[in-house]
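Practice record 12: protein with 9RB.
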Amino acid sequence: MTIGYVWNTVYGWADTGSGSLFPADATTGLQPIGHHLAHPDTKRRFHELVAVSGLLDRLRPVRAVPATEADILRVHTAEHLARIKEESLLPKGGDAGDGCSPFGRGGYEIAALSAGGAIQLVDQVVSRTIDTGYALVNPPGHHAYRAGGMGFCIFNNISIAAAYAKDVLGLERVAVVDWDVHHGNGTQEIWYSDPSVLTVSLHQHLCFPPNSGYLEERGTGAGEGFSINIPLPPASGDAAYVHAMDEVVLPALREFRPELILVASGFDASIMDPLARQMVTSAGFARLTRRVLDVAAELCEGRIAFVQEGGYSPHYVPFCGLAVLRELLGDPYEPDPYSPIVSTQGGDVLLDHEAEAIQAAAHAPAM
Ligand SMILES: Cc1nn(C)c(C)c1/N=N/c1ccc(/C=C/C(=O)NO)cc1
Ligand SMILES: [Zn+2]
């Protein structure tokens, strides 16, 4: 098996400013802080663990190339692209669009390289140059919608890669499975009326964005049934996520028959994440990964690619990422230093209200 891996040092240079979630503001008590919740150090630490663990030597480097304007315009409006480019030239940069997604001067180049990293991985997976792979890109993308960015996302990396797979590589059906803990509202919006891209979002119900990601959001027009939302209750752990995968995601993929599966791989559903309240462990992410690898082998000759989204625990994201990469390499799961603490908090038991939420999603009308 040849497993591709995308990382670029500048992904660790994304400047998230001196705020924590909101920009620092002495008039409202928002003190400056060294590490914004989305500080890139979390993802740099993931990369460094991959390197120090020895896994990096077993992965095939995939070189990120900046997405072109044409790549970006397949998904985003010219106005959004122009605004990001313009603000990226300012001495202190700008914001993706919601006032709490800052980027520094040169942020456009980093965001274009993030989207380009996803494109390069997909290109090599579809051409079978590599069997599968992981794009550890930054900034993330799944909240970015056609006309704007939000939630730390500037461009929708995974949608730009999906559009590339369709328009340049000629694929007809692409599935996006989003296990980031927040609703993949941007990805959903981009493809909402398009039956050629199935979007599936597992997320903590109403965690972010506000009032988004309801079960009833199922697509529109020709796209009706091709957007699937699986809102999960807070404190959902490994058992609930694996059950949702088995009961909702895999059946939907089998019905859609994608030629390529893209996984929006956020680790903010983890039990140690500060921006959500789920209880997934590194073992849970390994189990989810096993399942999507197996269904890709079953449906599309193993054409599956993983693209980094959120994940905000600098302590635990590295171990969640390592567990996913070990699964890609075919290595058995190995407990990490946090396992004794995180695997004994009850997330390994499926609770009735979790099962009920999942059954509701399973019984949503077919596509
Ligand atoms: C509510 C609210 N109101 N306002 C003004 C702002 C700025 C609000 N939250 N911002 C957030 C909250 C969570 C995220 C997570 C992103 C992620 O990891 N996605 O995968 C990003 C921004
Ligand atoms: Zn997230």
